[in-house]
């Protein structure tokens, strides 16, 4: 598969952007099997707050989307371990949880995640990737910003 030409940008909170994201999600597992209500609220919030990035082709086709929510490290650790729900916090967040990632090209995913981390550099990032039952098992991970790792190493 050829690497596509694309630009990474934040989408607006428009109905058009909402429809583009839904169209993309509807064609890829595990989102294609999800009820509309499970996806609509998080996507609206991500578009409205600007906590998302997208890869858009030269002819304005949506190639990939990644959206996240602010949370706390303590809550994200429970969420990643499947012990508790992910709680969104508007004040006092020290972590971001990437909740929706879909891409038509594997190489684009890493670029989206890099841009998201560049936009929010001073927090720890958490991910839970589900590829759909027929594809491969889910993955869970967290990434810490380089500046935070240096701070942690000084504290003991």
Overall 3D shape:
globular
Order of H and E elements: EHHEEHEHEEH
CATH architecture: 3-Layer(aba) Sandwich
Strand order of the largest sheet: 1-2-3-4-5-6
CATH class membership: Alpha Beta
Report the count of strand segments. 6
Distance between the termini: 47 Å
Helix fraction? 25-40%
Q: Which topology does CATH recognise?
A: Aminopeptidase
Overall tally of structural domains: 1
Assigned CATH superfamily: Gcn5-related N-acetyltransferase (GNAT)
What value does the average pLDDT take?
A: 86
User: How many helical elements?
Assistant: 5
Strand content: 25-35%
Low confidence ranges: 134-138
Major β-sheet, in short?
Answer: 6 strands, mixed
What structural class do the secondary elements suggest?
Answer: alpha+beta
Outline of the structure:
With 156 residues, this protein is of the alpha+beta class. 37% of the residues lie in helices and 26% in strands.
